[in-house]
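Quick note —
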Amino acid sequence: MNKVRITAIRQTVYQDLIDQYEKPIEHACDIQQGQQWISVNGKCPEGLCPSAWDSMKPFVQSLAQGKGNFFDGWMKNPMSAMISCNDGFRPFSFYIEAIKEPKLEVDKTTSQQKPRLVPKDKEEARVYKLVLALGKKVLPRRQLVADVGLRQKSRCIFVYNYWKPCWERGLIDFAYASVPNKPEQAYRLTAKGLELYAQLTGETE
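Predicted structure written out below.
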C-alpha cells in the first residue's frame, strides 16, 4: 500500500458565525499551518485530529490502495485530494497525497553487483569487477570488455588491467584451454575464482 502524506494547508475562521452561534471554548484547534503527518496502511497517523481524520479517512484509504482521480479529474495530481475538516466555524483544509515508494530494481547482471569485500587498491577493485562480470558463466572477451564498462577498442586495457591480474591470481582460465589462441576464445572462473565470486556475492552466507 502507498503511504499518504497529509499536510495542513490553511485554516478559515468564520468569526461572525463563532460570535453568533458558538459557545466560547479555548484551544478549539491546535493544528498549525504546514504541519504534516504520514498515514501508513491507510491508518490515522498519531497526533492528527480525530475529527479531521473522519472527514479525510475514505480518501486517504483510497489513495493508500492506489486509487485516485476522485470526481473525474478534480485534482491536478490525480493521486491527491483537498479535504476540509468538519469544523463549521474554523475549518482546516488538508492536502492529502499518495507517496509512491521507489521500487528497488535488482540488477541481475553480475557486472553491476557491489562486492561485499572491500578492495585494498585499484587493481583488486578491477579483479573483483571482472570476477563479478564473469560469475558462473562462460563469456567471450568482447562480452567481458562490455561488462566491465570498456569500449571494444580498449583491448590492451582489458588484458593488462583486468584479465592479467585475474590470471596471475589463478582466478580465470580459458574455456578452450587446449586451444589458447582460438579466435572465439572464451573465459571462465577457476575453482578459486568461483570461491571469490561466492564471497563477493554473499553466496557463502
